[in-house]
Structures are given as structure tokens and as C-alpha cells.
From TrEMBL:
Matches recorded under PANTHER family: ACETOLACTATE SYNTHASE LARGE SUBUNIT, THIAMINE PYROPHOSPHATE ENZYMES
Alphabetical list of Pfam families matching this protein: TPP_enzyme_C (PF02775), TPP_enzyme_M (PF00205), TPP_enzyme_N (PF02776)
Gene Ontology CC: one annotated term: acetolactate synthase complex
Organismal lineage: Bacteria, Bacillati, Bacillota, Bacilli, Bacillales
Stretches assigned to the Thiamine pyrophosphate enzyme central domain: 195-329
Record carries keyword Glycosyltransferase: no
Protein name as annotated: Acetolactate synthase
Matching PROSITE patterns: TPP_ENZYMES
The entry's keywords: Thiamine pyrophosphate
GO molecular function: acetolactate synthase activity; flavin adenine dinucleotide binding; magnesium ion binding; thiamine pyrophosphate binding
Database matches in InterPro entries: DHS-like_NAD/FAD-binding_dom, THDP-binding, Thiamin_PyroP_enz_cen_dom, Thiamin_PyroP_enz_TPP-bd_dom, TPP-bd_CS, TPP_enz, TPP_enzyme_TPP-bd
Thiamine pyrophosphate enzyme TPP-binding domain residues: 383-529
């Protein structure tokens, strides 16, 4: 369906593109270089501008919103200074395969190339980390190129697109603007591909599926579950794609991420046929690119043709949308012979995922409480940091679209992403997990949440250090601490200063009481968990690391 509009400004045309994409929220920090676009948004009741405290926070909100809503995230910022600040969100969207379109006001066309105030070559600046970058200087081409930006962001492997416009272009008039719906191609596997996969599975003794973000973006989680059930296929989640498969399902055998238990690793190592489904087989998922061996058969199915063979040469490479692939794989006639092995690997996974009933650390107690008290459809986001190891190891993700985490490992992500997720799911509980180091990087966005009445719950594990870096520091230079200690900050009190609720807890009972209050609160809430600095990771203490190094 096409719409033709005549004699509208560039800013109005961009807003019409937003409406065409059913964009409900755009995020940013206001700037004088794109004021006409803000004014056009003011006139459009179906779109709300969320004014953040920092462009980096705004880009994380947009990225989290995109992951939750499965629509494009949209960010607005001004010139080089705003663009530089939001670059972290562009990098995150690129590594996480998240569709996002960034609109930047550029200096006036008359000043370009003169090193004008806050000028930088936007195309050169963003080209290495964005999927596509364009600076539009002709008003008549704005509808065409903005629609192309959204199409590019969503097509194939999703990713971030950056659109730069000189500030004088926003106010120019377009004679005729044609708006068309954006259709995203969904390639299906060939019959030959399905036949080849069937033949490999017929010879398999220990097959394994590694499921990644491509399954989530195509909305194929249920099809994956049906396929795994039909053929008794064990399934692992790729790094930070925990909700791709329910953890209580007998076919689920673990998560390939940071600190993966050796029992889970053994499953991947023992597999004779590995089906990589919608994953780029990243450094973390493949444990520094050492996970798979030449003796294993690799079947790689992904919508990104450039990613096939980038890490491992596949025996079978299938360029296809995961939903289309799974709908056809459901009909193959294979008689599984690996049920006993799959059941054994499930049992080994369950042993690693069981929380201790006694002598729990506070991290373990928090996971137990969250598992008991959060609604089944609650959405969890997380920051970067070792605290996330307990979430990855012990939280029982179930059915549904319930997890948002940065595969890029960006600090400061968790809480702003939760704001974006809550806007996408206003009727669901949204909880972010952060360490004190990462939370402080974007803590100002708590005020944004309060200002817009976005009642998220932020859990902050406070051990007064950059814990992940301390862990590596102790491994390499035990006892020689530099740069990783942090000052003592009361995040509960800071939350109150930012118009939110705050609780500080030190025990499982205190945490549960605070969580129950937070679930009933109508405003953003921070639960500050004071943790033992010695408990540096799920598997080790600082004392363990120093002793190991000395030995």
C-alpha cells in the first residue's frame, strides 16, 4: 500500500516514515540542529519523544525497545557531539543484530567542509560500526532514503543505520513524497538443503542445536520447541539468548556464554552433528572460537549470507530465515537414535543449574527469590559484569520473549534497556540487573524513567569494584590492585534523589521484602544488594584466584 503526500517539509516526511513503520517512541537528547524534526513530532499524537539525560542512555533505550518490540529503535541526536555520545548504542546494535535507525542533525550545508561548529564527517565516523550510513543533502530524496534506511536496518541480519541531515535541510519543502510499506524478505531453504540436513541427521548419533538471535527475531521460538520435541533434539542457547528455549524443557541442555560449566561444554564437544541456527557463532558462544572441531559436522542456518563460513567452514550452509527453515524441518522423516545421550546431557545440565539449598551466597539467594516471585512473563535485562554469571547459571527462563542482554558486553546497558523494554511492554514487569560500576555509567536515566512514569525495577549488585576486570587482574597479577576499586555510593539514596524508590539489602529476606514492595510500586525502584567483594564470580573467590596463581 502506498501513500502520496505533497508539499510537506523534510521533517514532516520523516515523521510520516515513522508512522509508516508504526514507531511509537523515539529517543534522544534535543539539539538545535534538528529542532524542525522535534517540532514535527510535537504535531503527531501517535509518536512520543523520550528526552534522555545522555545520548548513550537514549541509544540503549532504543536498542532495548527494538529487542522487546521487534520493531526498529529510533534515536535522535545533534551533530558530532551527540553522535559520538550515542556511538556505544550503535556498536551494541551492530553486535547484537538489532534494527535501529539513528537520525543526526548535521551542520548547515553552507558550512560543510569548513570544520564548522561541531562538524565531523558522519559517514566516515560511523561507517566501521553501522550497517549503512547516509548523509542526505537533497530534500526530494529524503522519503526514498529514509525508507531505505528502515528497510536496510530490518532486512537480512538486522543492524543499525545512521542518517545524517544538515540542519537547513529539515525545513525544506518536498514537492511529492511517496510512502510505501516496508516488506522484509524472508528467504526459505531449498528442498535440496532440507534433504541434505535430513541425510546428516539420519547418520547422527549425538546431534546438537545451538539457537541464537535469528530464532528470536523471526519469532520462531515455538517452532524450535516443536522441532526439538518431535526429534528429541538437545538445544543450547547462544550467548545471551537465554529465552530462545524454555529452561525447564527436557530438550534444553544449557547456555554457551561466559563461565559455561564444563558439563555443558562437554555436551557441545561430544556432539557429532551441530546445527547452528540463527547464530553468528560469536567469540563468546564458541569459547574463543575453540568450541567446534573439524571432526564435527556443522550445519549453519542463518539469514546473513555473509556470516556463513566466517567463523567455521560449514558442511552444509543454508541461507534462510529461521522461521522458514524450521517450518520445513518439521516435516523431515528422521527416526532419532540419540534419546539416551540427550537425556544424559539434560541431567548433567540440571546438576549445574540447581541452586544450593543451604549456605547460599547472596547472589544465589537473589536468583532464588527472583525465580519464586517474578511473574512468568517478566522481562529481565542485564548490564555487563560478573554478577550476570549467576543470572545465566541459575535463573529459570521459561516460555516467551523475556530476556534482553547485550552480546556486545556494553556497560551501562541494563537500566536504560529496561526503560525501552517497559515502553514496549507496559503491562509486564521489567527488571534490570547491574553491577555498581555499570549502573553508575547511566544512572542519570533513572530520572528519565521517573519523569515519564516508567516503573522499572533496577537491581544493583554493589561490591565497590569493577568486578570483572578485578577477576582478570587477580588472575594475571594477583594482589596488585590498580584502578578496579570504586568508592562507596549508596544507590538506594541516590535513587531517591532521582525521584525513585530505593532499598538497600544484605540478606535474602531483606531482598525478598524489597522485591515484593517494588513489584507493587508505581515508580522506578532500585534495590541495592550489598555483596561480598570476595565472591568475584560464580566459580571462584578472590582468595581462590590468588591461591591458584601462586600454585
Amino acid at each position: 500500500m502506498k501513500r502520496t503526500m505533497r508539499h510537506i517539509t523534510v521533517a514532516q516526511a520523516i515523521v510520516e516514515c515513522f508512522k509508516q513503520e508504526q514507531i511509537r517512541y523515539v529517543f534522544g537528547v534535543p539539539g538545535e540542529s534538528y529542532l524542525p524534526l522535534l517540532d514535527a513530532i510535537y504535531d503527531e499524537p501517535s509518536i512520543e519523544f523520550i528526552s534522555a539525560r545522555h545520548e548513550g542512555g537514549a541509544s540503549f533505550m532504543a536498542e532495548g525497545y527494538a529487542k522487546a518490540s521487534r520493531k526498529c529503535g529510533v534515536v535522535l541526536a545533534t551533530r558530532a557531539v551527540g553522535g559520538a555520545n550515542l556511538t556505544i548504542g550503535v556498536h551494541t546494535a551492530r553486535q547484537d543484530s538489532t534494527p535501529m535507525v539513528v537520525f543526526l542533525g548535521q551542520v548547515n550545508s553552507r558550512f560543510l567542509g569548513r570544520e564548522g561548529f561541531q562538524e565531523v564527517d558522519m559517514e566516515a565516523f560511523f561507517r566501521p560500526i553501522a550497517k549503512w550510513v547516509i548523509e542526505i543533502r537533497e530534500a526530494e530524496r529524503v522519503p526514498e532514503l529514509v525508507q531505505r534506511a528502515f528497510r536496510t536496518a530490518k532486512t537480512g541480519r538486522p543492524g543499525p543505520v545512521v542518517v545524517s541531515l544538515p540542519e537547513d535541510v529539515f525545513s525544506k519543502t518536498i514537492t511529492e513524497a511517496v510512502m510505501a510499506e516496508t516488506y522484509v524478505p524472508k528467504p526459505a531453504p531449498r528442498q535440496e538443503d532440507i534433504r541434505n540436513i535430513k541425510e546428516r541427521l539420519e547418520r547422527a548419533k549425538r546431534p546438537l542445536v545451538i539457537a541464537g538471535g535469528g530464532v528470536k527475531w523471526s519469532g520462531a521460538e515455538q517452532l524450535l520447541r516443536l522441532w526439538a520435541e518431535k526429534y528429541a533434539l538437545p538445544v543450547m542457547a547462544a550467548f545471551r539468548r537465554h529465552d530462545v528455549f524454555p529452561h525447564n524443557h527436557p530438550c534444553y541442555v544449557g547456555h554457551l556464554g561466559l563461565g559455561t560449566p564444563k558439563e555443558v561444554m562437554e555436551t557441545a564437544e561430544q556432539a557429532d552433528v551441530v546445527i547452528a541456527l540463527g547464530t553468528r557463532l560469536s567469540e563468546v558462544t564458541t569459547q574463543d572460537y575453540r568450541l567446534l572441531s573439524p571432526t564435527q559436522t556443522l550445519i549453519h542456518i542463518d539469514i546473513d549470507s555473509d556470516g556463513l563460513g566466517k567463523v567455521y567452514a560449514p558442511d552444509i550452509a543454508v541461507w534462510a530465515d529461521c522461521r522458514e527453515a524450521l517450518s520445513r524441518l518439521l516435516d523431515i522423516a528422521v527416526q532419532p537414535s540419540w534419546q539416551e545421550w540427550a537425556a544424559e546431557r539434560r541431567e548433567r545440565y540440571e546438576q549445574t543449574a540447581a541452586l544450593p539449598l543451604e549456605k547460599r551466597t547472596l547472589h544465589e539467594a537473589v536468583m532464588a527469590s527472583l525465580g519464586r516471585h517474578l511473574p512468568k512473563n517478566a522481562v529481565i535485562t542485564n548490564d555487563a559484569g560478573n554478577f550476570a554469571g549467576w543470572l545465566h547459571a541459575f535463573f529459570p527462563f521459561g516460555d516467551g520473549h523475556t530476556y534482553i542482554g547485550p552480546t556486545s558486553g556494553a556497560m551501562g546497558y541494563g537500566m536504560p534497556a529496561a526503560i525501552g523494554a517497559k515502553l514496549a511492554f507496559p503491562d509486564r514487569t521489567v527488571v534490570s540487573l547491574s553491577g555498581d560500576g555499570g549502573f553508575m555509567m547511566t544512572v542519570q536515566e533513572l530520572e528519565t524513567a521517573a519523569r515519564y512514569d516508567i516503573p522499572i525495577i533496577s537491581i544493583v549488585f554493589n561490591n565497590h569494584m569493577y568486578g570483572t576486570i578485578r577477576m582478570h587482574q587477580e588472575l594475571q597479577f594477583p594482589g596488585r590492585v590498580i584502578g578496579t576499586d570504586l568508592g562507596r555510593v549508596s544507590f538506594a539514596r541516590l535513587a531517591e534523589c532521582l525521584n525513585s524508590c530505593g532499598f538497600q539489602v544484605q540478606t535474602e529476606q531483606q531482598f525478598t521484602e524489597a522485591l515484593l514492595l517494588a513489584l507493587e510500586a508505581k515508580k522506578p525502584t532500585v534495590i541495592e544488594v550489598l555483596t561480598d567483594p570476595n565472591h568475584i564470580s560464580v566459580a571462584a573467590t578472590i582468595q581462590d584466584l590468588r591461591a591458584k596463581r601462586k600454585s
